[in-house]
Amino acid sequence: MLTFKIRLPELPISAEDIYSNAVGLLFPDNVRTFHGDPGSHITYISERFGDMKLSLLDPHDQDERVLFAHHIWNSGIQMAEFISDASDPAKEGKKDGTGLEGIVSVLAGAEEVVLSDYPSPALLANTKANVERNIPRELQQKLTVRGHEWGVLTDEFSKAYSNHFSRILCADCLWMDGEHYGLAQSMEHFLSHKDNARVWVIAGFHTGRAKLASFFDIAAQAGLETEYIWERDADGNEREWVRERNGGQEDATGRNKWLVIALLKRKEASSTEKVGKHEQFFASMLMQKSNRHT
Question: What is the enclosing helix (H) or strand (E) of 117?
Answer without folding.
Answer: strand 112-117
